[in-house]
Structure formats: C-alpha cells, structure tokens
Write a structure and sequence with these properties.
By secondary structure, the chain is of the alpha/beta class. 36% of the residues lie in helices and 24% in strands. It has 12 helices and 13 strands.
C-alpha cells in the first residue's frame, strides 16, 4: 500500500502548498472533490480525457480565473438580473459568478444528457440555490429541433461538428487510465434559439451572455437577434479560428455581425 498508493498523499500535500487557490482535496468511497479557496467545489471525473479539476490542480491555478475576474469587474456595480450561460458543460462558469453575485438569475444550457447529469451533480455539490440557478438540458443555436452532436472523450469539446484533435478524443477508464483508443460518440440533443427561449420563459431582460460552443458561436448569435436588439447584453464569446473553420466562417464574420447591433470587440 505504501509503495503503490499512500506515497501519493504527501506528494499531493506538496502540490497543494504550491497552489494559489486549492483549499483541499476530499477523497470518499464515491468521489474525489477539490474545494477552492472561493468555496467552489468540483469533481474529478477521470472518464474525461482531462477534467477541469485536474487542469486546475496541475496548473496551480484556474485557467479561467482571469476571465472570471474581468467579467466580475465589468459587472461590478451594475444592476444585473439575468445571465445566459450557453455551452455550460458542468456549470463552473455560472457557479463562479454565482458565488460573487447570488442575487442574479442564471439560465444554464448544456445539450449533452450525460454532461447535463454532471452539471446537476455539481450544482448539488455546491448547494446551489435552484431558485437562482436554472439548468436546462438544451443546446442553443439558430434553429429549434433535434440535432446531432459529436461527443469526444473530453466533454468540453462536444460540438455540432466533430473535433479532429486526437487529444480531446482520448478514451479513459474510470481510473483515468488512457485505453489507447479514441472515441467520438454521436448524440441526438434538443436545441432552440435564445430568442425563442426568452419568449417562452418570459425573460424581461438579458444582461449578460456567455457563449462557448466550440465553433457554433456565430449561429447562437444569429438566433439571438431580438435579445441583442432589445436588451443589448454584455456578450462574452469564445472565438477561435480552428473551431470557426469547421463551421465555415471566420471569427471576423462574428465581429462584423455584432457591429450591426452596435457592439465593439475588446
């Protein structure tokens, strides 16, 4: 036991000493959970190619820490009622903001059913107030219906177009061992547009939109015309040429489209 397993524990202690934000790692018979200094908790999911908890631990910091801080600063002092988190995965982005602004309503969208289940687990793990955190097993695009999504070994890379990076497609077992195979499942998921959703749920305002959908960002925004026109929310949107190329556009096309609604890119 000492030679094969327990020697890892003091190594983890040393790792935590050098970590900016990790408060503790709790191991139970069912789960391994990291708690950050902010109070946010996340599961280690070893069946992913890599889990967000692993990334945080190995980097000695949250890779999205700067993004969250920038957005928190932009929203600070402003009256914010409604946030749309489009492409939420397990909801870490919304939960980070929720810890800072628990008075806001967060509408959290994740289309992949298995990932959505993990989203619900993560909200429960963090004792999230479901009067303020509203999770939906839905994708957001420029049409309503059922679409085929491609799910690789890393769920954060799930997309309407298959990712070609083998790193994200690595298959792992429940102990985190890579099997030597790559995986790409096809999953039918429900989708709608942000405009249709806002009307259906009678949203009286949309103040902030976070969009991270692995290349489908342009089409999410095309389905948000009424929201952009009526509410002019702050939009935080991932734009990567490698993802946009798979969908047949360039990030500059999104910047041009948004300029038509009075937006500037910064």
């Amino acid at each position: 036991m000492r030679e094969n397993y327990t020697h890892i524990l003091p190594e983890i202690m040393e790792l935590l000493k050098n970590h900016e934000e990790c408060k503790s790692i709790t191991i139970t018979a069912d789960d391994i959970v990291m708690e950050k200094q902010s109070g946010l908790k996340m599961f280690f999911n070893f069946q992913e190619s890599f889990s967000r908890a692993e990334v945080d631990l190995c980097n000695a910091s949250d890779p999205e820490k700067e993004d969250i801080q920038v957005i928190s600063n932009l929203l600070s002092g402003k009256k914010i009622n409604t946030v749309l988190d489009i492409g939420a995965n397990v909801g870490m982005f919304s939960l980070e903001l929720y810890l800072k602004r628990p008075d806001v309503d967060y509408y959290i969208f994740e289309p992949i059913p298995a990932t959505y289940t993990n989203l619900l687990r993560t909200i429960k793990l963090n004792n999230g107030n479901l009067d303020k955190l509203h999770p939906f097993n839905l994708g957001i695009s420029n049409e309503e219906g059922t679409l085929k999504f491609y799910l690789p070994g890393e769920s954060e890379a799930a997309s309407l177009k298959p990712v070609d990076d083998k790193f994200y497609r690595k298959q792992s077992d429940s102990f985190g061992n890579y099997t030597g195979s790559v995986t790409m499942d096809e999953v039918e998921c429900r989708v709608t547009t942000a405009d249709i959703f806002a009307k259906k749920y009678n949203l009286r305002s949309v103040d902030f939109m976070k969009i991270d959908v692995e290349g489908n960002e342009k089409f999410v925004l095309e389905g948000s015309k009424e929201i952009l026109r009526a509410y002019h929310p702050l939009v935080y949107c991932e734009l990567l040429r490698k993802h946009a190329k798979r969908f047949g556009y360039h990030p500059n096309d999104v910047i041009s489209y948004m300029s038509g609604y009075g937006y500037k890119c910064s």
